[in-house]
């Protein structure tokens, strides 16, 4: 660091005179001791001066760094390592001086002893894992380090683990932030009492040394900083300085860690103003100090918000016209000039948009305290340190140092004040920063520690005007990106909004400041000050209005927009964070009556701001067409405070409402949003691109809805309850552009809407009305009811997981609002409305998570479609909810048909909002409902069942909420009704329902059928009304008014508005008039409209009854129920909740109408008496007949379609079953057996590509679709039953010594050490690791078809996920993954030798035949030798098999590339496949039969391919194992070849390998009796091996005894079949060698002292032979298609041996079974045994030890398992996430652990990369031959690597609610899910990862 350099210059070369000469020797300790003594004297002036001088010299600031600032080369030259050394020197001096001559370490320990701190205060940086406990936290930001968390008691608390985003500090011990019950053991004791006082002399030196040290640091910081030239802070330079300073800051940081005593000294030093003044004033003779002081002053200049010299700068630079215009014009139009002027002034980039200038002036004058705006002044080290910390953009080390000091209370206060003082400067630096993200995090890291403490926040608010500063700073920040608003009146608008495209908004740069603001508003005392301060409220509303109307959307009408802007993300985020969250924070303090005053204040200033806004955008009464903004924060503030006032503060609503005109204006924009939502969903905005749909979704999405759509709807409800209902209803239909549709005529023209959008817009309008009238979120529901309704709505759409529910239920975004997710009420409501469905696991199915599903009674009583519609982001969710509801009703038998959305009784309205119900009782709505009912009945176009449903819903709502009894009904006729009295007499729905309407005049196009050529004059009937909705010039209306009354929605609305406006002002008229007439003239192109008069003669009641007929399809279907049962009227049982369809809805409405009025009852009865045909009383014209027929035809077509679909579905299902089901008969094709037919039939295959069937031929071979994969599963078998567990401490480690693969490796290398290589490679199988496993889906295809299929895949770029170049493809039929085709051997199917029943030839003859057949290489059909297609394919598939595994798993020979290698590899492939199938069957064959594994197996075809290739190699003729097994040799041959390595003794051979070699060397297809013969011969060898192994395991005495007994019985007749005799013979033979010798010492320990009973010996022999019998039986099953018998475990041996033909058929089963009875010796037993034993004796002469080891083959492997995992995920996480990697010794960023072997690896870590392979990929190749299963520690998920692809498998750890927590985002405790882990293990063992997991991607070796 720079200190080093300092010392170098003023270092020891220039000794200062004050120092005694020995100072040159730099005996630091002595000097320090001397100084300490000097300072301890009462008169210490001399000592002090001496110390000063020393420090001057050691910490001198004259150093090369100053030069470095001027030129970099100088630095390079001067910094040749010298500076670094000197730096350290300076630090060493400081340490020595602090310790006062003692050792620094001891000094540290001494200071720590006096640490009184009861706080933890551990500071951490980003990505640290910490905990948060909501049960213990007082502040929502509370956090604990892992250590304090685990040492405290948090059982049963609501806590979670989280990764720190910005860094933080541990709050343990701080009772301001958390409850004391949660403190950990260390911090529970209030320790200050029992800690002794600090001795004065301990820290005396520190008080002298530290000020100089800190001053030195500040000087470095000053010098290192150079003002950036072109407003681009050269980050390089800053970083360089910081790197140099690293040791100094670390030294300070270490001091803070010494505990409270040292921290208080530091606090003294940092805050002492005198010290600061003396040292930094910049006076004095030192030139260097002066220079640094000047630099500091320059840096300070730019720290204020305003610049007094601003104006001067402009004047000097450019006295052009620009300047003067600027002054005059304010800001209009000056943007351009200003921008240019400004760019030259490098500091202030704020002004680049001139718009804000005018406001800026206003602001600075209104701010209370000028000091906010001014240049900073520093009075202490702390202040300047913070200043530089900000200048250098918050270097992490500095931040940590400043935070480490916080446990010191005095410091905390001082630092907080300093922070506030620098707040504006922080904002400016942040805006300029290039790394604003990092910087934001660091700022919040600091501020959250300061402002979460209420006491501190209050103090700073009072003393430092924190609120003023924050609001002002935010305002200034936003002013830099304002643009002119284009809403409404583009030319003359004076409103400015933020520009969402600016980096400031796009990158969320403002969030640190906003988050601090939200944080302090959460403290009641601070929020109260804010709400009381009128000036602040005005400023804040000013700030909010910047967001009012931002991100305006204009509808594209012609072509698609070319560039879809994504600014809406920024806009929504800004409104939520900068406007809504502070609002919720303020609202949380307005909960009680005493806070009424606050609400009045907010509402008052909010309305003022709104009025300003309406003026600024020039708004009168009509919103501009085709534009919408979703951002109206002022409206929402107003709405939310109104709601709070009525709900919690008992304020009278009218006292805070404005006048009618303002209400009308207020309602326009929220209503415009609702209409636009409908337009967007009707695809009318499709040319604006997808982003507009995104906005519509975000507006209702769970995180935004209660700050956006809910307040909007509530505001509209308030307006509706206070405005004239007719005006409101007509406004709604006009906004939704469906006025023209509401006509009785069957045809109409809509001037503003295309026909295809009409239906959905009408549905939109009605839906909106339904929501408006039904929603009670802010109109009287309690919080718990709201929570319940929200939860029911979400659960009805879909079953949900616990976390998605938490996410979907909108909580008040402010954390202190009370509804904290996971809080008590949430859980209790959840358990009341939902049932938990535990997670399900079907292997192969998708793994589901634990879900909550609605209880039956919720569907029955609480399902609320209105709430569902309000909350759905995707329209399909509404349908999904209805489908689920329908399913419930069908299932529970409540309603069989297609139900309609149920009608639900609503929570009663709060009295303040009663006026809302007047909407249901206004004539306009009744006219609309009547018209729609009529149109539906007449089948007009563009109407749907959905429309009818909502019309009925509104009628029913009206009846529910009707005015009281009939009495007033009769009287309501009086009163001067205006022009539509002709429609309905009054406004009460109950009476209007029965009112008959006879004639209606409509305006229709001349072409319409209604046009009758008669004069309008004749229609003089008094009840003639006319719903005339065409928008025409007013003139036309006036002409018409003579003949008939005309009613127009639009005209009505205008008239109302006009009246109100007239009341308020007269001049507004002139504005409105011309506008309206010009806008609504009908376009000239439309056909002429004429007036027609329709005869209607219906009332709403009669229409309803006819609808009932129409819906039920029967005449007279409606019969009033009360005629039968008068009770219904007296005690109506109208349930709260009704299921049913349209018919039941109509019945319900008629019943309610009859209940409410006697007249209605009478009229209903009358209507029903006139038997009414279902069609209106006109003759059925041809046209109508047509429509009726059309209906019927449609119905029939629909039924036909249903039938077809059902049939198709069932077909598809059956196909899926056959194709996908592993056990289906499809897969049997290749192995089908037709024993019944004596003649040999050729196997027939179907090609799944061309669909032809036929045999496989030489020229056109057919092949099986197969997947070849290398596998090391077999190698993972161990011989103990307990699976290993994953290590979770340093002690536990897993060593792979006892795995099957390791044991086999050791054996092979032992053999290769002592015996001839070629024979070693026959004596053992490889493939335990990296063996090739072949599996098929069972489908076949022609090989030429396959090649063209591959070509087409190669050209098709879309199909990724597998690599066609590597030969990968998916089966064309079942889509299973595959990578090769295995040719089917032509000729007969499996069964061709079945007729060769075991012949009665003697075993000797068969042995001869076998030997001869093996000797003829040409025994194959001749054609194979010539090149045919088939042989080519066989060769290519063999190549594929070889390439599947790595070379190291193929080459085991000492001479690379020897043919023996290939030979070994080939028969090992067969072995691998047999062994794996055995494992899939559970390790034994007790279950018998075909298994799923058998279905996937293609061993038969594989054998043909292998045999073909094995025959190309011949075994050494002089050494044929077959001869050794079946012939006695002359003894002398053994002695001849001494010099060469001997062959492997036959007793050391692996018998199963021998079996495969023998069989594959035979010509195919093999004859059954030859097979049996080979098995019999090999069994004799196996049995002898078992005896030999047993003899080694016996003790010396046992052996002697056996030897003796055997000799006695040697000559009995069945000697060859008695194991006792054979055993004794083996023992006596082997005793001739040295095998049993040198037992002596250590061997005895190994031999188990058990004495062998005959039973245990028999058991040992059987166990030894079983693995061979199992493999052989499997082989027989595949080669000859014989069934495997099932059996009990204990009889497996006898069953298998008889199945293999080892047991003579006449064997009696009465006495206990003896394994020896299976023996059938080809030559005299004893002689051949003695020959075999002699080979071993020859070997043990030299190597007795190894001889013994090789004899005991451990062949009883248990099934492979993955490692066992601990119950709780935290145990894994805590151990591994901090563990260092063994390769690179760093803590990996993404640690992972292999679940097969427990190896710890770095995922994606470049540190452990080897030849471009990252560690996980590398490990997957070494551990699993290309298959790796890794648990990602930081994500809790499992990742599978398979070859060159990988996929995320999912997690086996679930939380208490049965769901995964990927990436540990929620941080809840996770527990192992055993079922899932089983599924994973099953897929690993059965090699089905490729088939079951669908989402694969290439990993490019980068994992």
Question: How are the SSEs placed, and which strands pair?
Answer:
Elements: H1 2-9, H2 28-40, H3 45-58, H4 64-70, H5 72-78, H6 82-99, H7 104-112, E1 123-124, E2 129-133, E3 144-145, H8 146-151, E4 159-163, E5 168-169, H9 185-188, H10 204-224, H11 235-256, H12 260-271, H13 273-280, H14 287-301, H15 310-317, H16 321-329, H17 335-344, H18 357-366, H19 381-391, H20 396-404, H21 409-421, H22 423-432, H23 436-451, H24 454-464, H25 466-479, E6 482-484, E7 496-498, H26 503-506, H27 511-521, H28 524-532, H29 534-545, E8 553-554, H30 567-587, H31 596-616, E9 627-628, H32 633-648, H33 660-681, H34 690-700, H35 709-722, H36 725-735, H37 755-774, H38 783-797, H39 802-808, H40 824-833, E10 834-837, E11 851-854, H41 856-861, H42 865-871, H43 875-892, E12 903-904, H44 923-937, H45 945-960, H46 967-971, H47 989-992, E13 997-1005, H48 1034-1040, H49 1049-1064, H50 1068-1080, E14 1089-1098, H51 1100-1112, H52 1127-1130, E15 1137-1138, H53 1142-1156, H54 1158-1169, H55 1182-1220, E16 1245-1246, E17 1253-1254, E18 1262-1271, H56 1300-1314, H57 1317-1320, E19 1331-1342, H58 1343-1355, E20 1369-1370, E21 1377-1378, E22 1380-1383, ...
Antiparallel strand pairs: 1-5, 2-3, 2-4, 6-7, 8-9, 10-11, 12-15, 13-14, 16-17, 18-19, 18-22, 20-21, 23-24, 23-25, 25-26, 26-27, 27-30, 28-29
